[in-house]
Amino acid sequence: MKIVELNEQTKAEVREKFLNRSPKQFGEQEAVVKQIIADVASRGDEALFSYTEKFDHAKLTKETIEVTEEETKEAYAAVDPSLVEVIRKSLVNIRSFHEKQKQNSWITTEEKGILLGQKVTPMEKAGVYVPGGKAAYPSSVLMNIVPAKVAGVDEVIMATPCGRDGKVNPSVLVAAKEAGADRVFKIGGAQAIAALAFGTESVPKVDKIVGPGNIYVALAKKAVFGNVSIDSIAGPSEILVLADETANPRYVAADLLSQAEHDEMASAVLVTTSRSLAEKVNEEIEGFLQVLSRKEIIRKSLEGYGCILVTDSRREAIDAANLFAPEHMEIVMKDAFEVMTKIRNAGAIFLGEYSSEPLGDYFAGPNHVLPTSGTARFFSPLSVEDFVKKSSIIHYSREALEEIHRDIEQFAKCEQLTAHANSIAVRFEEK
Amino acid sequence: MKIVELNEQTKAEVREKFLNRSPKQFGEQEAVVKQIIADVASRGDEALFSYTEKFDHAKLTKETIEVTEEETKEAYAAVDPSLVEVIRKSLVNIRSFHEKQKQNSWITTEEKGILLGQKVTPMEKAGVYVPGGKAAYPSSVLMNIVPAKVAGVDEVIMATPCGRDGKVNPSVLVAAKEAGADRVFKIGGAQAIAALAFGTESVPKVDKIVGPGNIYVALAKKAVFGNVSIDSIAGPSEILVLADETANPRYVAADLLSQAEHDEMASAVLVTTSRSLAEKVNEEIEGFLQVLSRKEIIRKSLEGYGCILVTDSRREAIDAANLFAPEHMEIVMKDAFEVMTKIRNAGAIFLGEYSSEPLGDYFAGPNHVLPTSGTARFFSPLSVEDFVKKSSIIHYSREALEEIHRDIEQFAKCEQLTAHANSIAVRFEEK
């Protein structure tokens, strides 16, 4: 990878590349997506079946659109039993971490008769989208379903496209069953998002849609936002390793490559105070590239969006890391935890040389659905909080309201909202 | 208002009206908004000044775009000092409630060297939009700024359009100062949203934009979602009162009218088990309509979107209330708190006959920015959580990773991600 000294210009250049990997204009696809959504919203199943035939080349009916128990059994028969074991072990950790995100409803009371609070209620139905295509990611199925189930959502409904044969990838089905999906529909693309957002004769309308997908799925999610809630729109994956001279270059190289292999748009950046480390990491990368199966993808992503930035000081390295706001950040430095206190923007922070990023993808327990493309400035990892909503609770006694009723009336009148003032005043009018 | 018996048909009809008050198609406005955003994003201040001149008829420069200390002083001189007092009293309650929403970062540890956690970090910059126009709502300024300040956001930046004279409404300015806005810019419309989302020479780029606005502002917020975070898109206001025969019809009528006065699209619905109450509420409404200053607006909103639904049972009434998922819900029934436990969907729940809705708008402390148009199914009141983001924290020791490294490698290989497997395996390879 290119090694560059960090200065204002190189920082801006690298950041620009890092943050602007996804194209921003989708006029043509947007029009297609709008049409599909309007059609499914108005014609329901009929439109859904027709788009599925057109795009997925599968003929669905009311009877075959949903995965049956029989099909789930077949899926178990088709996958390596040791994968089921690993999924179960991983689920223990994922559930345990997400259980700790649960929030309680709370109240506060004042003796004069004031009770205020916040009630936390799970959503009734959540939709989880799982992409089809060649690559199947059962780990992603777990990460999207578990927070909804832990939140207490009544019904978690998965949508994933089937093949021409009407079958769904067996490892995806097994992961869905293990994670606790309540229903699985064999639908994909913008038509699946529309079906979940508006409901059809076969597919129930949900309250929130989460999960990754291609550009049509992403645009459809953005289009239905407001009719339902959605998670953040996922861009290509990225890692930023923050390392000093104490880091093991072989490990750092392996970790950078683990993200670069995702796709050609993925980004891997090393920010280091040590030029010597930078050079050794580059050597290790060359070594690994001889043997790794996805070396073509890796080479392209490293060429396009990979970089090593060398800084004069630790403070500069940390500032650069915050500026990038990466999806995954590894800190392999002396006093890693102290450095972490200075990190404001990152989806997940991996500390120390045995906390390799794939540990988080598969096993540790925190969610691997993380904000990309610098959105860690304002978005958070997918969590139990994504599947609950809150209601404020307000109770005042006569005594408590009487004490302040003139203040409220004045405030309302100042905003010319006289019926607001009246609704308070009427409670204290003389009979 | 029309009194109808609740049955499947009337429920569906009333709900349809209630939820579909906002038009859904904005093709023309969308095109305008897109153009403005692209222009401000590429030309910065120049475009921002030119749109401000076009739409707000005010000539801004780098020197005059921001409200000065002097202008804030003038604003204080222009408002009734007793309003400042009320604002301060209200702020005590709003801050106190929002302080209770603050979440701690947390960790869990296992002795073999596993540390997992969730770090909570405030966003750096938040943008608060405040509409201009005839009506000024200082209460809304407080409700949008306080959660950001309590969250610990470094800089809260307010945008509000100025008049032709380059001045901002004084009560809005005073509210901004009291609530703790760090900077106030005299900009409005889609161009203000674009400036906050992308930054210009004068206006800093923010991480999140909140606050109500007209259709151009709402469409602009939706368009920049992903570049920044936004709050939910606000629709017209609404109230649903759930009442039995114990309710005071005069109070119920006054409370329904307090929402109906907001605008002609506002909705006020009473769901009650008592036909006698329904009739008395209607009589009281007629009485109030003789005297209230905004009676023209109220009549139109009641005609268009007001209704009284009479149900046979309390259970049916509660189910209907949940189906509507109203922004504001009042429960004026025997055992109001018990009824509240059955409410799943509502922005804010007001309990008992002295908890009139305007108490929440102005004074009690919980936020008055609430999900509208049935989105309480999945959206929450504006809160401190809107202005923080989370990062997962993952640390494993060598010992802890060694115990499970083969599991991770297997999972990664099953997903054909061999560089992921390699980044774990490399740490345990034989030297």
Describe this entry's structure for a reader.
- The structure is a homodimer of 431-residue chains.
- In chain A, the strands form 3 sheets. Chain A has a 6-stranded parallel β-sheet with strand order 1-11-10-9-12-13, with helices on both faces. A 5-stranded parallel β-sheet of chain A has the order 6-5-4-7-8, sandwiched between helices.
- Chain A has helices spanning 8-19, 27-43, 45-56, 69-78, 81-99, 138-151, 170-179, 189-198, 215-224, 249-260, 275-291, 295-305, 314-324, 336-341, 357-362, 398-414, 418-425; strands spanning 3-5, 106-110, 114-122, 125-129, 155-159, 183-185, 208-210, 229-230, 238-243, 267-272, 307-310, 328-332, 348-351, 388-395.
- Chain A has 431 residues and is α/β, with parallel strands linked by helices.
- The first copy, chain A, has 3 domains: 3-22 and 235-364, Nitrogenase molybdenum iron protein domain (Rossmann fold), CATH 3.40.50; 27-230, Rossmann fold (3-Layer(aba) Sandwich), CATH 3.40.50.1980; 396-428, no CATH class.
- Helices cover 47% and strands 16% of the residues of chain A.
- In chain A, helix 4 (69-78) crosses helix 7 (170-179), helix 8 (189-198) runs parallel beside helix 9 (215-224) and helix 10 crosses helix 11.
- Chain A is globular, with a radius of gyration of 26 Å.
- Chain A is built from 17 helices and 14 strands.
- Strand 14 of chain A pairs parallel with strand 13 of chain B, so a sheet runs across the interface.
- Chains A, B: Pathway: Amino-acid biosynthesis; L-histidine biosynthesis; L-histidine from 5-phospho-alpha-D-ribose 1-diphosphate: step 9/9.
- Chains A, B: It holds the Pfam family Histidinol_dh.
- Chains A, B: Keywords: Amino-acid biosynthesis, Histidine biosynthesis, Metal-binding, NAD, Oxidoreductase, Zinc.
